[in-house]
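Example 9 (inverse folding). The structure is encoded as follows.
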């Protein structure tokens, strides 16, 4: 029998690199303080690229312009209760809104080297954080036209 009520959680994430450092957020979670990319859920009526720009601004106060799709990732939490379908975008920053209040639960935005990201893997919200960065470093870039919004 097919479970017609089950649906994955569609999320977006921004992979942002500047001068060899990646922009992450430290946030409160049910499991304590964790690191994540600027990321969040797709909202009703929103395109994926609009969602990732919004989430980056809300969580880091930086204006993010998506330029490519890094990858699409499916991950089910070890508890087996939630499956995430993540669309990770790479792009550039177009300024910061100094003094902007960050989303509830976000402690800070932080720039980390890839070695720092790897060293903190035990404090990542999911294994997707490091995987997205590794894919970015491997040169994985797909055109935005791969995802169509109607």
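The amino acid assigned to each position is listed next.
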């Amino acid at each position: 029998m097919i479970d017609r009520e089950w649906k994955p959680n569609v999320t977006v994430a921004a992979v942002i690199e500047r001068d060899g450092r990646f922009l992450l957020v430290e946030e409160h979670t049910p499991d304590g303080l964790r690191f994540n990319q600027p990321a969040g859920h797709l909202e009703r009526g929103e395109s994926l690229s609009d969602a990732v720009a919004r989430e980056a601004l809300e969580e880091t106060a930086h204006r993010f312009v998506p330029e490519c799709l890094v990858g699409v990732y499916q991950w089910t939490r070890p508890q087996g209760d939630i499956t995430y379908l993540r669309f990770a975008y790479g792009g550039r920053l177009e300024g910061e809104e100094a003094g902007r209040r960050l989303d509830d639960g976000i402690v800070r935005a932080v720039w980390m080297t890839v070695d720092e990201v790897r060293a903190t893997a035990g404090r990542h919200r999911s294994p997707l954080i490091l995987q997205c960065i590794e894919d970015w470093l491997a040169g994985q870039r797909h055109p935005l036209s791969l995802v169509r919004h109607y």
